[in-house]
Amino acid sequence: MSTIFWRTGAVFGAAAVGLGAFGAHGLKKHVSDPQKLANWSTAAQYQLVHSVALLVASNNPVAGALFTAGMTMFSGSLYALTLDTERFRFLGPVTPIGGLCLIGGWLALAFGKRGAGMRWPRP
Ligand SMILES: *[C@@H]1O[C@H](CO)[C@@H](O)[C@H](O)[C@H]1NC(C)=O
């Protein structure tokens, strides 16, 4: 399980940098609303930070699951809403739920078992 979270965090981190770069360049050809571009940037920043958090949390299954679900829902819904607000309007309520999952992940790190130091997997 910890290896899956480790790999997920690393892949999500790579994707976050790519999506952030796209938001700073190519996306501007399709989206002009600065608030939408700001939302995209927020999504990429939260994804990047929580990708690192997922590496740290990879030996804590509760935190790992919450970070994975939270990034997917929070950042994923913001990306979708930026690309096509009308089509993905139903994802509006998903963003704050994802945010709550991210908060829950940090709290799971705060109160979960940590063992004798962090034991990161060797993938
Ligand atoms: C940006 O995201 C927020 C939710 O985090 C949403 O309420 C707002 O409508 C979005 N803005 C635009 C222009 O899509």
TrEMBL record:
Compartments, record wording: Membrane
Protein name, as recorded: DUF423-domain-containing protein
Ranges that cross the membrane: 90-111
Record has Transmembrane as a keyword: yes
Organism domain of life: Eukaryota
Keywords assigned: Membrane, Transmembrane, Transmembrane helix
One Pfam family hit: DUF423
InterPro entries: DUF423
Span of the signal peptide: none
Membrane topology: Multi-pass membrane protein
Cited PANTHER family: TRANSMEMBRANE PROTEIN 256
